[in-house]
Protein backbone atom coordinates (compact mmCIF):
# COMPACT_ATOMS: atom_id res chain seq x y z
CA UNK A 1 0.00 0.00 0.00
CA UNK A 2 1.55 3.34 -1.06
CA UNK A 3 1.39 6.70 0.71
CA UNK A 4 -1.67 7.88 -1.16
CA UNK A 5 -3.58 4.76 -0.20
CA UNK A 6 -2.69 5.31 3.46
CA UNK A 7 -3.89 8.91 3.30
CA UNK A 8 -7.11 7.96 1.55
CA UNK A 9 -7.86 5.35 4.20
CA UNK A 10 -7.15 7.80 7.03
CA UNK A 11 -9.39 10.43 5.48
CA UNK A 12 -12.25 8.07 4.83
CA UNK A 13 -12.11 6.58 8.33
CA UNK A 14 -12.09 10.03 9.90
CA UNK A 15 -14.94 11.26 7.74
CA UNK A 16 -16.98 8.16 8.59
CA UNK A 17 -16.33 8.85 12.27
CA UNK A 18 -17.62 12.40 11.86
CA UNK A 19 -20.81 11.25 10.15
CA UNK A 20 -21.42 8.36 12.56
CA UNK A 21 -21.35 10.57 15.65
CA UNK A 22 -22.75 13.69 13.96
CA UNK A 23 -19.96 15.83 15.34
CA UNK A 24 -19.93 19.53 14.55
CA UNK A 25 -16.56 20.04 12.91
CA UNK A 26 -14.37 23.07 12.18
CA UNK A 27 -14.38 22.27 8.47
CA UNK A 28 -17.42 24.48 7.74
CA UNK A 29 -17.84 28.00 9.00
CA UNK A 30 -21.52 27.44 9.70
CA UNK A 31 -20.85 24.32 11.78
CA UNK A 32 -22.22 21.91 9.17
CA UNK A 33 -20.32 18.89 7.89
CA UNK A 34 -18.63 18.60 4.54
CA UNK A 35 -19.79 15.82 2.27
CA UNK A 36 -17.82 12.58 2.43
CA UNK A 37 -15.61 13.29 -0.58
CA UNK A 38 -14.86 16.85 0.53
CA UNK A 39 -13.67 15.65 3.94
CA UNK A 40 -11.34 13.15 2.30
CA UNK A 41 -9.86 15.74 -0.05
CA UNK A 42 -9.46 18.35 2.71
CA UNK A 43 -7.81 16.02 5.20
CA UNK A 44 -5.48 14.66 2.51
CA UNK A 45 -4.06 18.15 2.02
CA UNK A 46 -3.79 18.70 5.77
CA UNK A 47 -2.00 15.52 6.84
CA UNK A 48 0.14 14.80 3.76
CA UNK A 49 3.21 16.36 5.43
CA UNK A 50 2.56 15.13 8.96
CA UNK A 51 4.35 12.04 10.23
CA UNK A 52 1.71 11.54 12.89
CA UNK A 53 -0.88 11.27 10.12
CA UNK A 54 0.67 7.94 9.18
CA UNK A 55 0.99 6.88 12.79
CA UNK A 56 -2.71 7.56 13.20
CA UNK A 57 -3.50 4.93 10.57
CA UNK A 58 -2.15 2.16 12.79
CA UNK A 59 -4.02 3.31 15.85
CA UNK A 60 -7.24 3.80 13.92
CA UNK A 61 -7.06 0.18 12.88
CA UNK A 62 -6.24 -1.07 16.39
CA UNK A 63 -8.86 1.09 18.09
CA UNK A 64 -6.34 2.60 20.50
CA UNK A 65 -7.36 5.57 22.62
CA UNK A 66 -4.16 7.22 21.47
CA UNK A 67 -5.70 7.73 18.05
CA UNK A 68 -8.60 9.55 19.63
CA UNK A 69 -6.03 11.98 21.00
CA UNK A 70 -4.47 12.39 17.56
CA UNK A 71 -7.90 12.79 16.00
CA UNK A 72 -8.75 15.64 18.36
CA UNK A 73 -5.38 17.25 17.63
CA UNK A 74 -6.07 16.95 13.90
CA UNK A 75 -9.40 18.76 14.24
CA UNK A 76 -7.79 21.41 16.44
CA UNK A 77 -5.00 21.94 13.90
CA UNK A 78 -7.49 22.28 11.04
CA UNK A 79 -9.45 24.82 13.09
CA UNK A 80 -6.33 26.95 13.65
CA UNK A 81 -5.28 26.78 9.99
CA UNK A 82 -8.69 28.06 8.97
CA UNK A 83 -8.03 31.08 11.20
CA UNK A 84 -4.81 31.89 9.33
CA UNK A 85 -2.30 29.81 11.31
CA UNK A 86 0.38 27.89 9.40
CA UNK A 87 1.83 24.47 10.16
CA UNK A 88 5.53 23.58 10.31
CA UNK A 89 6.74 20.34 11.88
CA UNK A 90 4.86 20.09 15.22
CA UNK A 91 3.95 23.75 15.67
CA UNK A 92 1.37 26.23 14.47
CA UNK A 93 2.39 29.78 13.58
CA UNK A 94 0.43 33.01 13.26
CA UNK A 95 1.96 36.01 11.47
CA UNK A 96 0.22 39.23 12.48
CA UNK A 97 -1.21 41.75 10.05
CA UNK A 98 -0.78 44.74 12.37
CA UNK A 99 2.08 46.19 14.40
CA UNK A 100 2.37 46.37 18.19
CA UNK A 101 4.99 46.64 20.93
CA UNK A 102 6.74 43.46 22.10
CA UNK A 103 4.63 43.18 25.27
CA UNK A 104 1.33 43.82 23.50
CA UNK A 105 2.31 41.32 20.82
CA UNK A 106 3.01 38.71 23.45
CA UNK A 107 -0.30 39.39 25.17
CA UNK A 108 -2.08 38.79 21.88
CA UNK A 109 -0.41 35.39 21.54
CA UNK A 110 -1.03 34.33 25.13
CA UNK A 111 -4.73 35.14 24.93
CA UNK A 112 -4.89 32.59 22.13
CA UNK A 113 -3.12 29.79 23.96
CA UNK A 114 0.27 30.42 22.37
CA UNK A 115 3.30 32.65 22.88
CA UNK A 116 5.79 34.62 20.85
CA UNK A 117 7.88 32.50 18.53
CA UNK A 118 10.85 30.43 19.79
CA UNK A 119 13.24 29.55 16.95
CA UNK A 120 15.04 26.24 17.52
CA UNK A 121 16.65 25.50 14.15
CA UNK A 122 17.83 27.04 10.89
CA UNK A 123 14.94 25.27 9.13
CA UNK A 124 12.44 26.99 11.40
CA UNK A 125 14.21 30.33 10.92
CA UNK A 126 14.02 29.93 7.14
CA UNK A 127 10.33 28.95 7.30
CA UNK A 128 9.49 32.07 9.31
CA UNK A 129 11.40 34.43 7.02
CA UNK A 130 9.70 33.00 3.94
CA UNK A 131 6.30 33.59 5.57
CA UNK A 132 7.12 37.14 6.67
CA UNK A 133 7.34 38.38 3.07
CA UNK A 134 10.17 40.86 3.78
CA UNK A 135 8.53 42.18 6.96
CA UNK A 136 10.19 42.53 10.35
CA UNK A 137 8.57 40.78 13.29
CA UNK A 138 8.97 40.32 17.03
CA UNK A 139 10.10 36.90 18.27
CA UNK A 140 10.00 35.60 21.84
CA UNK A 141 13.54 36.61 22.79
CA UNK A 142 14.70 39.38 25.15
CA UNK A 143 17.33 40.35 27.73
CA UNK A 144 14.94 42.40 29.87
CA UNK A 145 15.81 40.52 33.07
CA UNK A 146 19.62 40.68 32.79
CA UNK A 147 21.42 42.81 30.21
CA UNK A 148 23.25 40.60 27.73
CA UNK A 149 21.58 37.35 28.86
CA UNK A 150 19.13 36.51 26.10
CA UNK A 151 16.21 34.32 27.12
CA UNK A 152 13.22 32.91 25.32
CA UNK A 153 9.69 33.42 26.62
CA UNK A 154 9.74 29.89 28.12
CA UNK A 155 12.70 30.88 30.34
CA UNK A 156 15.38 28.98 28.41
CA UNK A 157 18.59 30.76 27.44
CA UNK A 158 19.52 31.38 23.82
CA UNK A 159 21.97 28.78 22.49
CA UNK A 160 22.10 29.44 18.75
CA UNK A 161 21.16 32.82 17.31
CA UNK A 162 20.77 34.22 13.80
CA UNK A 163 22.02 37.73 14.48
CA UNK A 164 22.72 40.27 11.79
CA UNK A 165 26.36 41.41 11.71
CA UNK A 166 26.88 43.97 14.49
CA UNK A 167 23.86 42.76 16.47
CA UNK A 168 22.89 42.72 19.27
CA UNK A 169 24.25 46.16 20.12
CA UNK A 170 21.95 47.25 23.00
CA UNK A 171 21.70 50.72 21.47
CA UNK A 172 18.93 52.88 23.04
CA UNK A 173 18.03 50.30 25.68
CA UNK A 174 17.23 47.64 23.08
CA UNK A 175 16.05 44.55 24.99
CA UNK A 176 13.71 42.77 22.55
CA UNK A 177 14.44 40.97 19.30
CA UNK A 178 13.01 41.05 15.80
CA UNK A 179 13.71 38.77 12.85
CA UNK A 180 13.70 39.88 9.23
CA UNK A 181 16.19 42.73 9.67
CA UNK A 182 18.09 42.29 6.40
CA UNK A 183 18.07 40.06 3.34
CA UNK A 184 20.19 37.20 4.71
CA UNK A 185 17.83 34.46 5.93
CA UNK A 186 20.35 33.17 8.46
CA UNK A 187 21.63 36.52 9.77
CA UNK A 188 18.73 38.91 10.31
CA UNK A 189 18.00 39.18 14.03
CA UNK A 190 18.41 42.57 15.71
CA UNK A 191 17.60 44.05 19.10
CA UNK A 192 15.19 46.99 19.34
CA UNK A 193 13.44 48.87 22.14
CA UNK A 194 10.52 46.74 23.33
CA UNK A 195 8.20 49.73 22.94
CA UNK A 196 8.80 49.92 19.18
CA UNK A 197 6.03 48.59 16.97
CA UNK A 198 6.53 45.65 14.62
CA UNK A 199 4.58 42.72 13.29
CA UNK A 200 4.89 39.57 15.40
CA UNK A 201 4.78 35.76 15.14
CA UNK A 202 2.90 33.53 17.60
CA UNK A 203 3.78 29.86 18.01
CA UNK A 204 1.62 27.09 19.44
CA UNK A 205 2.90 23.54 19.97
CA UNK A 206 0.44 21.04 18.53
CA UNK A 207 1.01 18.39 21.22
CA UNK A 208 1.08 20.68 24.26
From TrEMBL:
GO MF term list: carbohydrate binding
UniProt keyword terms in alphabetical order: Disulfide bond, Lectin, Membrane, Signal, Transmembrane, Transmembrane helix
Signal peptide extent: 1-24
Membrane-crossing residue ranges in chain numbering: 51-72
Keyword Secreted: no
Pfam families assigned to the protein according to its UniProt record, in alphabetical order: Lectin_C (PF00059)
SUPFAM superfamilies linked: C-type lectin-like (SSF56436)
Domain C-type lectin span(s) in chain numbering: 88-203
Domain of life from the UniProt record: Eukaryota
Protein name listed in UniProt: C-type lectin domain-containing protein
Annotated organism of origin: Astyanax mexicanus (Blind cave fish)
Native organism taxonomy: Eukaryota, Metazoa, Chordata, Craniata, Vertebrata
Amino acid sequence: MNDHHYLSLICCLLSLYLHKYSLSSPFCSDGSLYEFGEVCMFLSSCVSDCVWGYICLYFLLTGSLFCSFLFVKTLSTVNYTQQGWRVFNTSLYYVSTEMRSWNRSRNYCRKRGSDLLIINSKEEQEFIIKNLSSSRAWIGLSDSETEGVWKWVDGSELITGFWRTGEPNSYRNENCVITGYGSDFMKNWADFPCSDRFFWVCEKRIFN
